[in-house]
Amino acid sequence: MARKAHEISNELWRDGKGWVLITVSAGWFLSIGVRFTYPSILPFLRTTFGMDLSTAGFLLSTLWIAYAIGQFPGGVLGDRFGEGNILVFSTAISTVAVVLVVTAMNIWVLFVATFMFGFATALYGPHRFTIFTDIYDDRSGTAVGMTMAAGSIGNTILPAAAATIAAYATWRLGFGVLLPLFIGITVALWLVVPTRTSNTGSTDDVLSFRTLRRIIASVRQGGIPLVVLIHVLLSFVSNGFLGFYPTYLVEVKGFSPQIAAVLYGLYFAVGVVVQLLVGLSKDKFGAKLTLILVAGMFFSGVLFLQFGETILYFVLLTLLLSNRNGLGVITNTYIADTLPDEIKGSGLGLLRTSWIMVGAMSPIFVGYLGDLGQLDYAFLILAGVAGVGLFLTAFVPKGDPISGS
Fold it and tell me: Which domains, ranges and CATH numbers included, belong to the chain?
């Protein structure tokens, strides 16, 4: 086992690739961690800007809609100007957006800065996958898993830290302490990550209708449509689940808000390990088998939410549900591996824009049923959707790269 671990470490670190892995992972730690910081400081933002719940909810929607919109442009720009350049540009604009959030004196500036931050971090999204499929031949799944695990660490640490600072000082300081990190990561990306990692630079006008038609044709080939459909279904379920899991635990199961918050944090904390294991499993056993296992455990977890009342039961159930954290390691890596190099970022960005936008609709659906007093029924419907996703994993073509063959 130790010998195998040493072999994997050598493969990940060889030829300076390890520094790229660490730097890109650190950027993702910051990018996604700050997005999940918004909900944790929302009560403080409401007080400062006099927002009601509807306005506060629209602020969060603005963040995620901007994140969805920016995926495709991020992929296109990376294919045109180089993946490394776009990561640097993403974190630089994110830094400016954080400055605007911290110094915002009215709600309009807050909304504009929030949209800017969501869009800027979206530019980062596609290329944290394509870079590793470019530089690693056999360990792309492991590298992507490590990067996503870094994001889960950010989801666990940054929201709690910002909320604690806000409680004892001010929410502006809770956001402001992140500025040196953004500046440092921007410089590190510029120094460490190659300007371009793909083999072929795009010299065509990547925004032309001809290229767009080629992207659409590429994402319709092989098993990509089925894998995308599976990802869309499970993302719809997870967005609704994550948006209302603490509320469900409080209103339906009768737990205190404090216990609900701990269980919610546990989901992300365990995700760190899950994403690493899923990446290793994808490389060793093939992504199809790993996808079936991840979808199966997530479906079981959502279904079993209907049963059990004790804290121990929901601790164990949260461990089961946290396997959803590994889904993106498989699906994003598969798509990035399958698409042609010159449109890899564009194609992945287009697909990510589509499924993030669809997933953003799930909290509206769950919230509507929750207002009708049917929150438990909403979660049962989510379990049904997850079951459809699990069923579809059996039909992923065996000859595709996702099967590991």
Answer: 12-196 (1.20.1250.20), 211-405 (1.20.1250.20)
